[in-house]
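Retro notes
What went well: the complex prediction finally ran end to end.
Inputs used:
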Amino acid sequence: MSAETLVVILLFALPFLSAAVIGIWFRLQGNIAAAISVASCGVVALLGLWLVFFGERSVAPAPVEWLTFGTYTVNMGYYFNDLAALLLFIVVVVGLLVHIFSLEYMRKDEGKARYFAGLSLFMFSMIGIVFADNLIMIFIFWELVGLSSFLLINHYFHKPSAVAASKKAFIVNRVGDFGFLIGIIWAYWHFGTVELSVLADMVGQDSDILVTGIGLLLFCSALGKSGQIPLHVWLPDAMEGPTPVSALIHAATMVAAGIYLLCRIYFLIPPEALVVVLWVGVITALFGSLCAITQKDIKKILAYSTISQLGYMVAAFGLGALAVKNGVPVMQAGVAAAMFHLFTHAFFKALLFLGSGSIIHACHHEQNIYRMGGLRTKMPVTFVTFTIAYLALIGLPFITAGFFSKEAILYLAFANNKLAFLVLLFSALLTAFYMTRLWLTVFFGAPKSEAAEESKENGLLITVPLGILAFFSIIAGWEFLHPQAFSGILDGIPHPSGWTYLLMVALGSGAMAIGVAAAYVYFGVGSRQDRLEREHPGVYAFLSAKFFFDQVYNWYVKTIQERLALLLHFIDQIFISGLIIRGSAGVLGLCSTGLRNLQTGNLQHYLYWIFFGVVVFWILGRTVFS
Amino acid sequence: MELVEYFPILVQILLAFVLAVVILTVSQIFGQKIRRSLTKDSAYECGIPSEGKSHTRFSVKFYVTAMLFILFDIEVVFLYPWALAFRDFLAAGIPILLPVLFFIGVIVLGLFYEMKKGALEWEK
Amino acid sequence: MDDLQYFKDAAASNEWSLIWPEISVGLLALSLLVVEMLVPKMKNRLVPMIAMIGLSVITVTLVLSWVGMGVSYGESFAGLLFQSGFGESMRLFFLLGGLFICFLGYVTLQGRAIPRVEFFHIVLVVTAALMLLAQSNHFVMIFITLETVTIGFYILVSYFRNQPISLEAGLKYLILGGLSTGLLLFGIALLYGAAGNPQLAGATAEGLNLQALRAFLLNHGDHTLAVAGMLLVLFGIAFKVAVFPFQIWVPDVYQGAPTAVTAFLGVCSKAAGFALMIILVTRTFNVETMTSITVPLLSLMAIFSLLYGNLTALTQQNTKRLMGLSGISHAGFLLAGVVAAVHVDWAVWAVVFYLFSYMFSSFAVFGVMAFVEGKNPGEGEELIDYTGLYQRSPFLGTVLGIGLGSLAGIPPLVGFIGKALVFIALFQAGLYVLLLVGALSVAISIFYYFGWMRTAFFGDGPDTEKDYPAIEVPLPKRVPLAIIAGITVFLGFIQVPLAAVLGL
């Protein structure tokens, strides 16, 4: 066994053991649970970083046979390339920082042990997705991250809204996963295998075997997990979970897993499907930024921003086309741009969430931005780091990471599809608009509530992770710093040159500047009220209704699905349960009582019975059968 | 042998049935009719009405003794042909003594056992 | 002196060393009587110990002798016995069975004013006879060993002679058993008569020898008398294994007999019958003219047994009757395996494996029953007496759960493997109807096995108001039960040891 394999096994085992140990023995000892979980995450981070920077890239060395269905065997192996290394890097770094942050944030929580067990379980499942070398294993870990996300959103289970949100997240994700599962089955039926490396070879030899339907069904997975329209509805509600969870799962890693999966199986998505992917991403990007404008809850704003940014990544992926060089499908610019944005976004969005967590923690769980204000002086570290992340998100030119990655996507769109480019550019403007509104309202002006008044900077356990993330939020975009480890991916980032470059920078920075300026002018500094709501209630109501997705879904569930379910329930009660289950039990019971009457206990009857048996079976033996 | 060959037996059985039926029917038809009464139908017990149960119970000791008797009786019956064949077998070199000694040994052990258990004591 | 030559040959074929286990068990039985005579005061403790230790030593020696010398094969004692791998594995089966019955007897008899030396003596004698039965190759041998077993059981069933219910059971078993013996004997006589008919070509005076009989049947398998004899012999054995329609005695006798005897009857007596079934159906009557009768007939009996046993067990509240009725359905499974073995050779081993699995799992259940029942007749035998057993004694609850789970055929336990093997054999033999009925009856059996388990584990029996006392099981008595339950679980995961013993 090579050192890499051993490390991979440890990466799987440690979080799992941590979750199991906490779940079995330390359900009530929160501090011990936290120590175990953080320690395991620390070791995982060290091992993970070693693997990222020094580990050999390998395709499923020595897979272990795991399950056999008929002629098909599911192997357990891992597939570690630069793509996986990139996501692993994000997962372990952000994961560790969130673990540390949680130590302070969840200090007084009653369900601390439950929380940390959930985090460990999530780490286990996420690492599983990173390494899985076949679609079946991906699917299994896909469901496991869904489960751990469900558990963590549901952390405050005494709050009905949290319960509803977790349920919603789970159910909506199932819709996407259903498509994913059908896609896997279809892929197996069509290609005869679900091993990623084998599939890549097959497609490389003959790209005509691709089927659009399979590609679209596999894309369903990303639709659900990465909150793309129309399955985005769960993500804003998922903010009911603890804020570090939002940072880790619903901003940096799990929601990005959809993009990762697309990049992992990029060779299975034919160009026809890519068009769909592109427009889903573009519309989502626009939609998310529109919705973010009217939100008042700081976390909801960030959630819609996440949806929008994920839309960017999906769109970027959709812009890249499949190409085959020397019989091997190659990573295209789309994959590179998408992963680049995923990489930078993971840091600054996690930072935004953790920053908002720091604010929420300081303001005694106040989340309404119009009840904050003036936090700039009260929480200087949070202010500085949050500002860095804010600048990265809106794409402050030449410094922040977000600028470079967003620029790459915009250029790609410019080069391939002008309409998509315009929409994406507009949503970049909107991004600057709503983020500036948030930033000005929260940090400037006078405190607008007692909680904000009393808030003060948090301790090192919170500020240090913020600082580290701020550091990454800047340098992650500087390409000359990108390590060799990620060259397989990040070298493919598209770069404009000459006039195009100048045009791109000008348009990007221009959109950003317009957005910032408009927000500054329209909302003002440290406003107490939402001017849009006051002056243009119609527009506000339209935007805050979030395009009626929830209403439509509710209507569908209430009128169509519930009625169908009632009908099915009725059929179930009458036919299945009544006639078949209970009926058969009743019939059996009657037979039983009848047959029991044979046992009279009378010896003569028994003798007659045996004689009778001899005669009947004798006759059978002598006549019927012989 | 085919089933047909048992045909005479079937005839025999049928004949027995038929004979019985015929005799009973004939006596019923041609026999003297009697007048029935309660006294005439009652059991006749040498003039005295019966007393107590018709089945008397014997002490279990009788059964035990009888069983033991049969057991040892059979042993003797078993030894008789053995004694007759003993000489010939010995001459032919067939082992005949040791197996029987083992058999007798077991029986003797049984005898001691039942003596110890008190099966042979009539009054205890 | 042809006669003498015959006897000489016969005596020369006597290889006493081959049946040393049976002789040892017999001598062990005799030694118990000696012990009682010599040290009457210590007999209550000493006798069960000697019986159990002796049997264990013989069992271990037997297994070691296989390792050391291998399994002998072939006729001996002038064709009375036939040594084979099958016979050897059944020997082991009956030794293990006898061993556990001694333990159960020790538990059941404790604290009762009932002589106990005789119990162990008879159990040992019956065990020895059972071991010989499995190797017999001659109707005389079969009949004598079977009668030794049956007469032993007549005594054992009515062993609690101060309880009317036990006596009633003994009487019923005696009369119905006598009937079955009559059927068997009549069948043997007909077969012998048919084989000895000088008018037929190939007639033999050795018609009681199974090989000679088979040679005759090869030519005259459709002979009226021979078929009649075969049917009667099968009916006689069907009574011993309690398959439909000869199952009618089972509930009454099982209920009345002491629990240890019920277990003995349910496992070892049944296994003896199936050993005979295998010897006769698959090795003697396996000529084409006869299998055309035996296969459908026995299949029909198996189907009826499966359905009857499971259906009647559904509403049964008395655990002993329940075990008896469920035993009928297990007999149906075994009979199905025997039928499959007519066509598929290895199915014999599926039957033997099923017998072993059935022994381990039902001994686990019977072992628990011995601890739960009370000293008075019928006390602690109803299902409601098991209410909350797991809370009253976690140990007994666990063992019961394992035993019942295995009987029901729940996957990780040995019962599942046994059933699976029989199903595979049925599939290979092309007996799809039997397969279907078998699967159906597994589903039905889960109803009542799980009903029992639910009562024992969750205690929502009909009468939860009554207070049930905790049951203490001292450590030495835990060990055998724990071993049995452990084997049940272990063999469910790893079948290699048993398969190695069976030569699968």
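What we learned: Chain C has two domains: 9-286, 289-504.
What to try next: split runs per interface for comparison.
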